[in-house]
Design brief:
globular, alpha+beta, about 20% strand, 9 helices, 6-stranded antiparallel beta sheet, about 280 residues, 3-stranded antiparallel beta sheet
């Protein structure tokens, strides 16, 4: 339970034990209680697999939106998320937003901060967001963006903080801009392969490898890549298969970028997706 005080953690523990015994309707009503801190309710909502709407209710969600609006700058972005000062919006998807932010303490550095949009906290979205955070957290490789921190905003939005790739651009664009030779391009692909192999060794499939999710930059005069966006990742486990907890994709559900999909992924055949799916995407790239 990141970013919670010891008192709030104890509140979560006590309330979870009490609410677990209640029928779903009564539990949802209890979670809307304005006397319960927003961060505590957000953590309980995640534990019970509820959406933000279910946990807070439409009226309170509107109040939170107004509170959030009061903390936005002239460009409509938040001034700060947790202890991080927001600099600019880097990217936006259906589920969340990624900001360039500045951390002041205990170290001073620029970071990329990914946060779920207000009102997007469905059970599946929260599960995917948490899986992405966990997937990045278990990996430590120079070709994969690192995770530094995570938390929950006062409005109940989970977020995590990761390495910011200074000057990073999509790998295909980078190769064109710098007019890289075939040898230099192959060397970048080798870096991608090494990063993906590291993820596979940690039991993580990316499932959305494409040029836009592989950032390239010059580091000490040498081209380097960073693999980002594990938002469609899935974990591999001994019992992994249709219906298993580690498999977030429903059979027949199409997720990913069609241009880079392996045939089994394009068919929505979740049971057939394995490490070769990522290898196929690298080949297309």
């Amino acid at each position: 339970m990141p970013d919670l005080t010891p008192h709030e953690r104890e509140q979560v523990r006590v309330l979870f034990e009490g609410l677990a015994e209640l029928p779903a309707a009564e539990r949802e009503a209890a979670l809307r209680d304005g006397a319960v801190p927003a961060a505590v309710r957000a953590e309980l909502a995640a534990l019970f697999g509820q959406s933000v709407h279910e946990a807070f209710g439409e009226e309170r969600l509107g109040q939170l939106s107004e509170e959030l609006a009061g903390k936005l700058d002239a460009d409509g972005r938040p001034e700060a998320i947790g202890p991080y000062e927001i600099v600019e919006l880097l990217g936006e998807g259906g589920m969340g937003e990624v900001y360039l932010a500045e951390q002041r303490e205990p170290v001073q550095r620029r970071v990329a901060l990914k946060v779920i949009k207000l009102g997007m906290g469905s059970r599946e979205v929260l599960a995917r967001f948490e899986l992405e955070r966990q997937a990045l957290a278990v990996m430590s490789h120079e070709s994969i963006a690192r995770v530094f921190d995570g938390g929950v905003t006062a409005q109940g939005q989970p977020y995590f903080v990761m390495e910011y790739v200074e000057g990073g651009v999509a790998v295909a664009e980078f190769c064109a801009e710098h007019e890289l030779s075939v040898q230099e391009r192959v060397e970048l692909v080798v870096q991608v392969c090494e990063g993906v192999q590291h993820a596979h060794q940690r039991g993580v499939l990316h499932r959305d490898l494409k040029p836009g999710n592989i950032l390239a930059t010059m580091s000490h005069g040498r081209p380097r890549v960073k693999i980002i966006d594990f938002g469609l990742a899935r974990t591999m486990g001994e019992g992994d298969g249709p219906g298993e907890p580690t498999l977030l994709t429903r059979q027949g559900q199409l997720l990913g970028t069609p241009e880079y999909m392996a045939p089994e992924q394009a068919r929505g055949d979740a049971a057939a997706i394995d490490t070769r799916t990522d290898v196929y995407a690298i080949g297309v790239i």
